[in-house]
Design a protein that fits this description.
about 120 residues, Rossmann fold, about 45% helix
Length: about 120
């Protein structure tokens, strides 16, 4: 059974680049959401194996989305990898209660993303 991964980013072009990079390198099922609210619904409905979550989004940002994912018994165990242009600042200010598998910096190399995710999650 192939792994499934939920890409959460408010920018359609970023979601498309990530999806293309992952599809070229893996047989994973790619799910996507354009907002934190959509991500919460998709994650609860589809229970992906992992979530790639953008930190900087309008309305509900990645931090708020992550807190709600971790507060829901259905989604609390799904590993979350944060993707942000401000990785260094985030890592310095990261609260320990926001349990994330990793923080990846933008811009990233789409063709190396699948290997990075696999390495982080031990797939």
């Amino acid at each position: 059974m192939p792994k499934s991964i939920l890409i959460v980013d408010d920018e359609a072009d970023v979601r498309a680049v990530i999806q293309l990079g992952l599809e070229m390198a893996t047989d994973w099922q790619i799910l996507s959401a354009s907002s934190g609210a959509e991500a919460l619904v998709t994650a609860a409905d589809r229970c992906p194996d992992a979530i790639l979550l953008d930190l900087m989004m309008p309305d509900m940002d990645g931090r708020a989305t992550l807190q709600q994912l971790k507060a829901n018994p259905t989604t609390e165990g799904i590993p979350v990898i944060l993707v942000t242009a401000k990785a260094q600042a985030f890592q310095q200010a990261n609260e320990p209660d926001l349990a994330v598998a990793a923080v990846l910096a933008k811009p990233f190399r789409p063709l190396k993303l699948a290997a990075e995710i696999s390495g982080i999650l031990g797939w």
